[in-house]
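User: quick one, fold this
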Amino acid sequence: MSQEKKVFVNRWINDPIRKFISNSAASGIVLFTSALVAIILSNSPWAKDFHRLWEVKFAIGFNEHYINKSLHYWINDGLMAIFFFVVGLELKREIMAGELRNPRNAILPVVAAIGGMLLPALIYLIINPTGEAAAGWGIPMATDIAFALGVLYLLGDRVPVSLKIFLTAIAIVDDLGAVLIIAFFYTSDINFTSLLVGAIFMAVLIAANLLGVRNTVFYGVIGIGGLWLAFLMSGVHATIAAVLAAFTIPAQVRINETLFSRKVSMLLVKFREAEPNDNSLVTPEQLHILEHIRDVTKGALTPLQRLEHAMHPFVAFVVMPIFALCNAGVTLSGDVMQNLLSPVALGIFAGLLLGKVLGVVGLSTLCLRLRIASLPESLNQRHLLGAGLLSAVGFTMSLFIAGLAFTDDTIVLQAKLGILAASVFASIIGYQIIRSAKPMS
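Assistant:
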């Protein structure tokens, strides 16, 4: 390829794609687009074919040992396990070196997240105290961080960095709460033999971490082929296995910063002194030096951070959009208002839009008044209110829990309508409130 063509491709294709993927708002835009496409197709002449697609079955296994499930099942229990794996990596990183490391800094977002989980569940149960509908109390407890941060980044420089950090910390704690809720309350009958097998694989992963094994392929094979599969057969939701596996990924470097700087400096000197080629190909000596630099760089990165960095775009731009396409389809028939005004939809709508805001803002304000915690720098009460509203964007996690809570198609439809309505309202109102907030001097 000529130099002119390379410049053209980089300028008009590669660079824009890289810039789009690195933009935090982009994943929210893609997620929203996928949900919109699902709703459009669910109300088009191809609606039956679209819904039938997700019920196509295929098997994974060999001989008599296989699992035969629908595409919808494999997306929600298989593909979403990758999402929960990345959530687990983020949780471990935040606990080790992020906002949740310092107890003083963590108090406010942790309390806000707890309030934002308990109050929505309580409001939902007040509206749906009995029957099958009562099982949906976990739905309004969730926050969709991709959508919430997507709205924040649309505001650009109007948003203080501390608000993005605060909302991210709330969502991280919220994700941990959602994982625990799924583990303890949304599981089927437990097969303790399979669970014991899973525990053995978990012990292998922990032992590998302690022994210093850093090969991510090893963790992938044992985590998926052993732990995830065992949990899938046990009745405990398989996505929990993904979070547990993520916590076993090593978070220590093999080469510290000082040694890394010294080695790379020496290798760069050798590279400059090496005899160059007169073309674009490097010499064998240069290739050896570059490979050495790559190995040193890899040793200076933790496997946890390498995996999180590598997998985040795949989760944001493949896993979550496919999940939204599969789960967000709502057929808007003549009785849409009746379904939207059902106790299930109203419970979710009120739980998210009212419970989240009162929980996040109310408990945060109480903490501030009691001087247990302090408001992050450059934030004010209007920012706090906006964060409470954006935490009411439930979408992905709420849809996921709705699929676990209900089996009746009508109730699932009502839940989806409540989630979508609340998420849209919360996004618009939260955007306007934060946009009108005056920056702190």
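User: anything notable?
Assistant: The chain has a mean pLDDT of 82.
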